[in-house]
Amino acid sequence: MIRSVLEHAGYGLLIHRDPALGETWLRRQEGVAERKACRKAFTPGAIETALEALDKKLLAIWDELYEFSIDHGGHPNERSLTTNLSMDDVGKTKELQVQYLHGDSIFVQGAIRTLARAGLYAFQHTMAERFQLLGLRDELKELRKGL
Q: What is the DSSP letter of 28?
């Protein structure tokens, strides 16, 4: 979820900065050329470049959260597998299980808090007027002090 929020917010930022990309996004399914154009335009690198131009501190937070999401299951890798893997002896064999959903655990609560922060940080530039109106910009500054 964290990776999805970060990427969608980043894509929103890219479209906000270049409205023509909205058309590229919407036409992704129309053919091979459209799919390639969309894949080329909407990458983590493109998001990082846009964030670097806007807010280097936000870029650092985005990078940290993105890597966190990758490490914890946002993309298959050793850590995302082994932290969710259990092995049991079943007769003469070993049974391996991967747990994808963890119920209402500390892990899930931490993920929800991180997800909320990721969304707030990511959308603050594309919805700047609303953030200002609701007083969220000041609250975000306070949240960012601990990072």
A: G
Residue 39: C-alpha distances to residues 14, 20, 68, 127 (Å): 13, 15, 23, 25
Distance (Å, whole) CA 53 – CA 29: 30
Give the integer Cα–Cα distance in Å for 103 and 32. Answer: 40
Q: What does the block give as tokens for 32?
A: 């091979």
Q: Model's pTM, two decimal places?
A: 0.68
Report whether pLDDT(97) > 90: no
Cβ–Cβ < 8 Å for 117, 1: no
Domain range summary for the chain, segments of one domain joined by +: 2-145
Instruction: Please name every residue paired with 42 in a beta bridge, in sequence order, or none if there are none.
Output: none
In this model, does residue 69 exceed pLDDT 60?
A: yes
pLDDT tens digits for 5-53?
888 888 989 999 999 999 999 999 999 999 999 999 999 999 999 999 9
